[in-house]
Amino acid sequence: MLIPTLRPYYTRQFRPLISHAARYYSTTPYENILASNPAPGVTLLTLNRPKSLNALSTPLILDLNAAMKEADTDPAVGAIVITGSEKAFAAGADIKEMKHKTFADVYEHSFIENWSEATRVKKPVLAAVNGYALGGGCELAMMADIIFAGEKAVFGQPEIKLGIIPGAGGTQRLTRLIGKSRAMELILTGTTFAAQQALEWGLVSAVFPPEQLVDQAVKTASAIAGNGRLAVQAAKEAVNYGLQVGLDQGLLHERRLFHSLFATEDQKEGMTAFIEKRAAKFKGK
Hints:
Enzyme class: lyase
Distance between the termini: 46 Å
Protein name: Probable enoyl-CoA hydratase, mitochondrial
Radius of gyration: 19 Å
Shape: globular
Helix content: 40-55%
Keywords: Fatty acid metabolism, Lipid metabolism, Lyase
Order of helices and strands: HEEHEEHHEEHEEHHEHEHHHH
Number of strands: 10
Largest sheet: 6 strands, mixed
CATH superfamily of the largest domain: 2-enoyl-CoA Hydratase, Chain A, domain 1
EC number: 4.2.1.17
CATH topology of the largest domain: 2-enoyl-CoA Hydratase, Chain A, domain 1
InterPro entries: ClpP/crotonase-like_dom_sf (IPR029045), Enoyl-CoA_hyd/isom_CS (IPR018376), Enoyl-CoA_hydra/iso (IPR001753), Enoyl-CoA_hydra_C (IPR014748)
Number of domains: 2
Strand content: 15-25%
Strand order of the largest sheet: 1-2-3-5-7-10
């Protein structure tokens, strides 16, 4: 079974090319994820439970939430990429952890409520999905702002086959992303679907060969991180807010955010650089 680091992508058949991302792995306090900085302004978080195909357990989610909070508050970071192994982004929630829980257990302790902390990150989050992204894995991917998929990625919400339903946003986000009829069919049958279908349905924005996926996600994250941080965060806020309200409210909120950016140094720098035909040097101020 593949260990979910970047090495399998680039050392297969003793290839001399080693990803720039692999060089940046550092010792972290996390037991279930690997954290690295593969490019300036980018944090890469790799789910790391290879024996369980990165099944989402409470300890893993706590590690992921802590790492994302750390990246979100780090002024040197402009974007975050979440990935898994080539075999599995995350094959689902940890069934062994859930099997013996009762209604009282899950209700009293708001089981899996903390999974949605990923959606409260202000900085853009990209999901690079190789292999299985099922159940909670699919839900985690959908919490990202941008999803890239490997050609062999497999998505789905098969919870119905376990006698439950998606509980971390699957019934809500999948419906909003691909439409009611198709989402209803997938959720009620537990049918999985491939990367190309996910692309055609608008769930993912691009599909790449598995060995190129993480590099492509990091490349896009790096491009995002190179833009003005305040404008990037405002754009993310505007898009997400607009999905929750009517068009008129969304337009008003967008305009207020647009107006507010005229109080920033980055706006002055960006427009001055454009006029002077040079690259802007944003400071996040």
